[in-house]
Amino acid sequence: MPLSVQLKTPITGEYTQPTGLFINNEWVEGVDKKTIEVINPATEEVICHVAEATEKDVDIAVAAARKAFEGEWRKVTPQQRGVYMLKLADLVEKNLDLLAAVESLDNGKSISMARGDVGAVVGTLRYYAGWADKIEGKTIDINHESFHYTRQEPIGVCGQIIPWNFPMLMLGWKFGPAVATGNTVVLKTAEQTPLSALVFANFIKEAGFPPGVFNIISGYGKVAGAAISSHMDIDKIAFTGSTVVGRTIMKAAASSNLKKVTLELGGKSPNIVFNDADIEQAISWVNFGIYYNHGQCCCAGSRVYVQEGIYDKFIAAFKERAEKNNVGDPFHEHTFQGPQVSQLQYDRIMGYIEAGKKEGATIALGGNRHGDKGYFIQPTIFTNVTPNMKIMQEEIFGPVVAVAKFKTEDEVIALGNDSNYGLAAAVHTKDLNTAIRVSNELRAGTVWVNSYNMLHHQLPFGGYKESGIGRELGEAALANYTQNKSVSIRLGGAIF
Ligand code: TXE
User: Fold this and answer.
1) In angstroms, what CA-CA distances link 216 with 28, 159, 371?
2) ipTM above 0.95, yes or no
3) Alpha carbons 276 and 462: distance in angstroms, whole number
4) Which residues are within 8 A (CB) of 411 and not within 5 positions of it... i.e. 6 or more apart?
C-alpha cells in the first residue's frame, strides 16, 4: 500500500496525507498489510485507506519505544525535552489550518471548532513544555546519620488509546504530560479518525524528537488496542473512551503485567438551572453544553434540570435557541453542528431517540435525521423525562438532551448525583451561596458555574465514579506519568 495519498479539502486545497504507521520516526506498512477504510461522515464517501496495525506492529512499536527510553531519550536533558515540545507546538501552530481541515474532513466537526481544538493542542504542548524542567523531588530530613531524597522518574513505555470525538485534542492531552516527564509512547488513534494524528506525526520528526519517542499507529480496538492493553513491555496505559472498554483495559492490565492505568470515560453530566439564573445566559450555556461537538463530548451536559418557577419560559426559549444552531457542511465557516462520526454512532443515537419516545418522554424539538446524506441528526430536546428513563441514565453521545423539572436545592442535588457517572456538572444561579453549596455537593470532577465546557490545559479534568481514574491536564496529569523513587544514603558512622 502507498505510505501517503494526495487528498483535498476546501480549506487547504491538495495536501499529502500520510497513511502508514509512524514507528521510529519512519513511515511503514503494517506487517500483515491490512488497511482501514476511512469514511467522510458528512458525505458517507471513502476518503482513503490507512495501514492497520496488528499485534505484530504493536510489538515493533513497543520495541522502538523501549529502545528510545533506555537509549537516546534517557540522555536528553529535561530542558531539551521542553525545547523539542516548543518546536512541535510552533509547527502545529504554523499548520493549524491544515490540521483543522483534516480534522473536519475525517471527524465531521465544524472547521471553526476544529481550529479551536488545534489551538488548544498548541496551548497544551506549550504548557507541558514548561513543566519538563520543573519535575522535582524532595530532600527528606530523618536524622544526622543519613541523607534521603526522592526522584520523580518517568514510568517508561506508555500505551495511549484515544477516541474519535477529539482526535487532535486527545492526542495533545496525552502527548504533553507523557513526553514532558521523559516517557516514550505508542499511541493508537481511533479507527474512525486516524488522519489528523498522521499529519501531526510528521511534525514530531521535524521538531527533532529522537526516533521511537512517540509512535502513532492506526488500528482497531479489539486488535491493536487489546495488544497494547495486555502488552508485557508497556509500563503504563492511558485510555479515553467508553466505560465498557475502560473496564476491559483495566482487566487486561491486571492480568498482564499490572501496568499503571488511567482512564477518562463516559459521562451523563447534570446542568442545573435555578429560578434566579440569568435565563438568556443559562440557555446559551445549556445549548453549548449539549450541542457542542454534536453532543459527542464525554462531559456533555446531557441532563438538564430546570427549577419550576422558570421551567415553561426556559423550555420555550431553549427550543428557539437550539433551532437556530446551524447544522450542515463542516467546512462552512458558520456551521455549528456537523454530522455524527459514523453510521454506528448515528444508529446508536437514533436508537436512544426511539427509546425516549417509547418510554413516554415528550419530543420538544427535533428527533429526526437532518438532510438525506451524511450522519446528521437534528438538535433534539426531550422534556418530561423521569429519572429511570434510559435517556436520563445512559450516555447518548449525540445532540440529544433530557430535560426535567425540580423544586428544591436538595432535590436537584440528589437528582444530579443520581448517576453512575461523575465527570462534570454545572450550576446556573446569581446567588454565590447556592453556587458554592451545590458545587460542593455534586459528585463530579469538574463543576462549571454560569458556564459550560470551559476546559483549559491548566485545569485538571477527570471523573468521579465510573467516569474514570486519574486526572488529565494541569499539574495533576504529571502524576500519571511519573513514579516516585526514594534514595536513602547512609552517611558513614553506625554499622548495623
Ligand atoms: O468507543 P470505544 P466507541 C462513549 C460514547 C460512545 C461509546 C461508544 O458513549 O457512544 O463510548 O463509542 C479503542 N481494547 N465514548 O465504541 O470502543 C477504540 O479503538 C483496547 C466516550 O467508539 O471505547 C478507540 O481507539 N482498546 C468517550 C477507543 O478505544 C479498545 C469517547 C474508543 O473506542 C478496545 C468515545 C479494546 N477492547 C466514546 N475496544 C469519551 N470519554 O470521550 C475499543 N478500543
Assistant:
1) 11, 10, 35
2) yes
3) 29
4) none
Q: Of 382, 220, 396, give the one whose Cα is nearest residue 297.
A: 396
Location of C-alpha cell 422534556:
383
CA of residue 442 to ligand 1 center, whole Å: 26
Q: Which of 264, 395, 466, 472 is catalytic?
A: 264
Rounded-to-integer distance, Cα 376 and Cα 340, Å: 6
Is 341 a pocket residue for ligand 1 (Cβ < 6 Å)? no
Cell numbers for 86: 516548543
CA torsion, ordered 316, 317, 319, 321, to nearest 10 deg: 170
Q: Which helix (H) or strand (E) holds 262?
A: strand 260-264
What does the H/E/C string look like for 289-308?
A: HHHHHHHCCCCCCCEEEEEH
Q: Pick the atom of ligand 1 nearest to 423's CA.
A: 41
158 is catalytic: no
Whether the Cβ atoms of residue 160 and residue 238 lie closer than 8 Å to each other: yes
Residue 164: all three cell numbers together: 474519535
Best mutation site among 50, 58, 245 for ligand 1 pocket (most ligand atoms within 8 Å of CB): 245
Distance of alpha carbon 100 from alpha carbon 111, whole angstroms: 6
- Direct distance between the N- and C-terminal alpha carbons of the chain, in angstroms, rounded to an integer: 66
Element (H, E) at 186: strand 184-189
pLDDT in tens, 277-303: 999 999 999 999 999 999 999 999 999
Residue from 48, 297, 298, 299 carrying the catalytic annotation: 297
Ligand 1 binding pocket includes 187 (Cβ within 6 Å): no
Give residue-wise pLDDT tens across range 135-192: 999 999 999 999 999 999 999 999 999 999 999 999 999 999 999 999 999 999 999 9
Task: Note if the pTM is more than 0.80.
Answer: yes
Any atom of ligand 1 within 6 Å of the Cβ of 161? yes
Instruction: State the DSSP string of 376-433.
Output: -B--EEEES--TTSHHHHS---SSEEEEEEE--HHHHHHHHT-SSEESEEEEE-S-HH
Give CA separation, 48 vs 16, 20, 167, in Å.
12, 12, 17
Mutate to test the pocket of ligand 1, among 186, 242, 299 (most ligand atoms within 8 A of CB): 242
H or E stretch covering 469:
strand 468-469
C-alpha cell, 185: 509512547
Question: Is residue 486 exposed (0-12), middle (13-18) or buried (19+ Cβ within 10 Å)?
Answer: exposed
Between CA 253 and CA 230 the distance in angstroms is 6
What is the number of alpha carbons within 13 Å of residue 338 lying toward its C-beta? 28
Cβ contacts of 29 within 8 Å, gap of 6 or more: 1, 3, 20, 21, 51
Residue-wise DSSP of 191-222: TT--HHHHHHHHHHHHHTPPTTSEEEEE--II
Q: Does the annotation count 411 as an active-site position?
A: no
